[in-house]
Specification:
The structure is a homodimer.
Chain A (H helix, E strand, L loop, with lengths): L1 E2 L1 H11 L6 E4 L7 E2 L3 E2 L9 E2 L3 E4 L13 E9 L13 E5 L11 E4 L3 E3 L4 E4 L9 E2 L10 E3 L7 H9 L4 E5 L3 E7 L3 E2 L10 E2 L2 H11 L3 E8 L3 H14 L2 E5 L9 H9 L5 E5 L1 E2 L3 E7 L2 E6 L3 H19 L9 E6 L3 E2 L6 E10 L5 E5 L8 H5 L3 E5 L4 E2 L4 E6 L3
Parallel strand pairs in A: 1-20, 7-8, 15-18, 15-19, 16-17, 19-23, 21-26, 24-27
Antiparallel strand pairs in A: 2-14, 3-14, 4-13, 5-12, 6-8, 6-9, 7-11, 10-11, 20-22, 22-23, 24-30, 25-29, 26-27, 26-28, 28-30
């Protein structure tokens, strides 16, 4: 019995726990999600200051000033950024002032330097009339003390970290990056440059999944390879369950597979594993269950299937655990420039395609060819997945929901 | 004299050197760019194998088989993945075979287990006729020995790393992630939770720029803060030039600024720094030069200006140094749902906007408000930059070139 993608994903998402938050230094918090609202403890900027280099003046003193009839003001001081204002600006006076410097008492406007001429003997000629408030940033112009600046649930981007730094925060309460163990199983697997003996292949799923995890903001933990033996598999899984927030295995979940992984997972989970057949191609088989509080994803063993299954199930679940609201890749209705033919088989097909923004403002996609579930090289050329519904496929120029993996 | 964005960027890109390649372990290579073509040293898969669990047979033996009149074959062995095939399959014989296992000699097809019934006494009933090659992946089906699998200049995505692992590579020759020093200058800057004295503000540019670097695949190096004193600035810059592939400073590049940074950079570069006024808003001032072979970017001090300047100049230049072909953020023609009004001023405006894919297949954008060059919180809400050309702006429903920063 095959179940629809959305139903399988709902089952997974409903079972995954939200990770407990903890404080993280700003330098490590990029991409993490805040676990509480952040309130401004002080105003930014903390004092009125100048947005330009020029002269702090009383606006009234510039009334009627023109290049032909400039206002002449006595320069009573100079203020650089970082200096505390000392002398007030009285009538007929000005203070030379640099961008970011605090506005001295008495002044209510800044004249940019381009509208002034020095006039020897400690005076400046102002060649234009300026209104009160000219080029002044009031205190609290960006953030006011007490203002909520980031709601709980904010995914921290570089500018958010800047905002936190501008408020004096050196750490922030976020949900941690999920630590996710990756285990390969199978007697046929070798790795590295080792010579292949008859029947052996090299393990490509583990490096691919570890890279997908990094790309998804998780910390991948390499649990190695287990032989097709219950003891080996159980030992590696136990290690993963001990130190990780989630564990991903690949292989050993298809109908009729030798059932070492199945037997171990069923025993460790006390029968709580789901062995699903999802109505998608590739990546029909999926094992999922929560073992002692830790989600375990049993992805299919074919390289392309394991990637697609990661995208469909593990990635959104791990993002949910880390507190993200946007669980899925951005989705666009894309134009299939070459068409995406298929045959009805009761499944949603996730075709690997290249997507590119066109001059018409739409994304246009083309199949990468090689849609076999083992053809990893073709998949490597794809930057998107087209969701081709059951039926005859998408005609040339037709549109189709498309997930952008990277653009 | 203001120069157009493209001209300033060309000047920067033409001056930045390509980094020297070196070998990197696969586990560290995600996002790096290959510096030479990668050739398959062996076929993948290395041997013909089965795509399904079932029975390896001679196709001719299944001729005419139906559920009512199955073909009866003697089961002469079992092959799991990873096992070397021993017994050949003779006429009237079959071998039980698991996904990924090598095809035994003599067999030319696989019957999936669902189309068979066991028949006691070491025999199987095949209930359908299958053609030669059924469910068989030939050797080299994914990659053939000698085939170029990745051209030089490939940005390594997770599937590429899987392909390399499947070929036995444990490292790959790539251009390194640029190491980029970030220096803040200014007497007004403090950091962390230190109490502010009059005239002081907290440094937000350094944490923001370090996060932007991480987000852009670079290794950021925190060069700290320098006081407004030539000795301090020179010492920090020298340190950055010694250990980094590029150095970014912020502040001290505007017309009329106190010229400590300028004086030091002009001296260190032997007069080769460019002090540019770019026809964009925000981020008009830009200093750029190559000092002893190392690019130095002097970004404006306002928080939003420094981010926009990073996007316009530093990010594409650093990507070019790392060998990327796609230097820029993905660009779409987006629909301005609310319009983006502006006044003519001879500049291209880079408005901070939120972009979202609509049901019509296009991206729709809205201004985040607060377009002041110091208003970092508003900028933090943006996920795109709209390139609003000089003139009256974009009317509601009009389209505008838009760079997607993250979607």
């Amino acid at each position: 019995m095959m179940i629809p993608l959305e139903e399988a994903r709902r089952l997974v998402l409903d079972a995954c726990p939200l990770l407990e938050p903890g404080p993280v230094p700003l330098s490590e918090a990029l991409g993490c999600v805040t676990a509480e609202a952040v309130v401004a403890t002080e105003a930014v900027p903390p004092f009125a200051n100048t947005a330009m280099d020029g002269y702090a003046v009383r606006a009234a003193d510039t009334a009627g000033a023109t290049p032909e009839a400039p206002a002449r003001l006595a320069v009573v001081g100079t203020l650089a950024a970082g200096q505390a204002p000392l002398e007030p600006v009285g009538p007929g006076q000005a203070v030379r002032i640099m961008t970011g410097a605090p506005l001295p008492e008495g002044a209510d406007a800044v004249v940019m330097v381009e509208l002034t001429r020095e006039d020897g003997a400690g005076a400046v000629l102002v060649t234009a009339e300026v209104p009160p408030g000219n080029h002044i940033r009031p205190a609290g112009d960006d953030l006011q003390a007490g203002q909520e600046v980031l709601p709980a649930g904010t995914e921290l981007r570089p500018a958010h970290l800047g905002v936190l730094a501008s408020l004096g925060y050196s750490q922030v309460l976020v949900r941690p990056r999920p630590r996710v163990g990756v285990l390969s199983t199978g007697d046929e697997l070798v790795e590295g440059g080792e010579k292949l003996r008859p029947g052996q292949i090299r393990d490509s799923n583990r490096p691919t999944l570890l890279a997908l995890l990094r790309d998804s903001g998780c910390d991948g933990v390499d649990l190695g390879r287990a032989k097709d033996a219950e003891g080996d598999i159980e030992e590696a899984l136990e290690r993963g369950l001990d130190i990780c927030d989630a564990v991903i295995t690949s292989g050993g979940v298809s109908v009729g597979d030798y059932d070492y992984t199945k037997a171990v997972l069923d025993r460790l989970s006390e029968g709580a594993m789901h062995w699903l057949q999802v109505a998608i191609k590739p990546a029909k088989p999926l094992a999922f269950g929560v073992v002692r509080g830790t989600p375990v994803f049993g992805l299919p063993g074919n390289p392309v299937s394991s990637m697609v299954s990661f995208e469909c199930f593990a990635r959104p679940a791990l993002r949910a655990m880390a507190g993200h609201h946007h669980l899925h890749r951005p989705e666009v209705m894309a134009v299939a420039d070459d068409g995406l033919p298929r045959r009805p088989d009761g499944k949603l097909h996730l075709d690997r395609v290249t997507a590119e923004a066109g001059a018409d403002g739409r994304f246009h996609i083309r199949s990468v060819g090689g849609q076999g579930s083992h053809q990893l090289l073709a998949t490597a050329r794809a930057n998107a997945l087209a969701l081709v519904p059951d039926g005859p496929g998408i005609p040339r120029g037709g549109t189709v929901r498309t997930l952008l993996l990277h653009v």
